[in-house]
Amino acid sequence: MPTREATGAAVPAPRGVPGGAMREIHGDTRPRLGQYVRMRPDRATGGYVLLGPETVVVLNQTGHAVLRLCDGERTVDEIVASLVAGFEDADEPTVRGQVHDYLTRLADRNLVAL
C-alpha cells in the first residue's frame, strides 16, 4: 500500500548511496524523474503529487516548481536560474543549495535520476 507524505521540499534526510557516499550534484547534471515515477495533478488538494512504486509524495508549490523543470534536458544551473528569475527576492546561492539538497534527497529515494 502506498505511503502518503505531505511534502514538497521536506522529504526524509538523505541516506546516501550504497557504501555511505553521498550523491554529488553538479551544475551540468540533468535531473529527470526516476524510472516508473510520474508527476500528476491531485484533485483532492488542487496541487500535484509524485507517484512512484509504492509511494505517493504530495508536492508543495516549491517542490512542483523544481520538479516540473527536471526533464532530463535542463541542467541544474538552468533550473536554478529559472527559479531565481521566477521568484521575487530569491537569492541564487540559497536557491542553489536548496535545489541541490532537495534533488539529492529525492534521488536517494529513486524518485529523481541524476
How would you describe the overall organization of this protein?
By secondary structure, the protein is of the alpha+beta class. The chain contains 3 helices and 6 strands; from the N terminus they run βββββαααβ. A 4-stranded mixed β-sheet has the order 1-5-4-3. Strands 2-6 form a two-stranded antiparallel sheet. A hairpin with a 6-residue loop joins strand 3 (38-41) and strand 4 (48-52). Helix 2 (76-86) packs across helix 3 (92-108). The longest helix has 17 residues, at 92-108.
Write the layout of secondary structure elements.
Elements: E1 3-6, E2 32-33, E3 38-41, E4 48-52, E5 55-59, H1 61-67, H2 76-86, H3 92-108, E6 112-113
Parallel strand pairs: 1-5
Antiparallel strand pairs: 2-6, 3-4, 4-5
Helix pairs in contact: 2-3
Describe this structure in a few short sentences.
By secondary structure, the protein is of the alpha+beta class. It is built from three helices and six strands; from the N terminus they run βββββαααβ.
Largest sheet strand order: 1-5-4-3
Topology order in helix (H) and strand (E) letters: EEEEEHHHE
- The Cα radius of gyration reads 14 Å
Principal-axes geometry comes out as globular
- Oligomer state equals single chain
Largest sheet: number of strands, sense, barrel closure: 4 strands, mixed
Q: What separation lies between the terminal Cα atoms?
A: 27 Å
Unreliable parts: 1-7, 9-21
